[in-house]
Amino acid sequence: MKHLGKLFLLASVPLLAACCSGQQTNEPCKTNDWQALLAEQMPLLGHRNWIVVTDMAYPLQTNPGITTLFADAPYAEVVGKVASMIADAPHVFAHIYQDSEQQKLSEELAPGWDAYKASMKAVLDSEQVEYVPHEELIRRLDEVSNLCRVIIIKTPLTLPYTSTFFSLDCGYWDAEREAQIRQ
User: Fold this and answer.
1) Which of 5, 12, 50, 76 has the fewest CB atoms within 10 Å, i.e. is most exposed?
2) Residue 140 belongs to what domain range?
3) Interval 53-77: pLDDT, tens
4) CA 69, 71, 73 angle in degrees (round to 5)?
């Protein structure tokens, strides 16, 4: 049965690429080539789009503005790759958010927490991260996904409150210059 699942996955890669390549869909895309799918989408994404890297328990959402991918890779590796892809994109940068509940977690409450924190320090500058309550981030994501594309990348991580939200913004324009033209 497991062999049939792999065979199905290989046979459906072109279909998966289609479901994740710019079409409005909420069908999940389970492929080991999540990086290629995200790289294909990067030129299409802009300010107001979000990319979210999540743990395994994150729900599969039904909003058509949300595309869900699965990355069978370590969480910190996926976050690091997403951050790198955004940094390499000439047209966007990201505001980075994580759940404020993280600040209250410990190894005793969530075994594996210390290793998670150490792995995240290696891929994200903690000064770039803003901590926001989980429910507030989910509310923002729901609002955004009604108008703009959201890409969610689920990972095999099984620790609570570990989602990383990249809210994209324009990389070649800023709020100060926007304010000047609005005066």
Assistant:
1) 5
2) 2-182
3) 999 999 998 899 999 999 999 999 9
4) 170
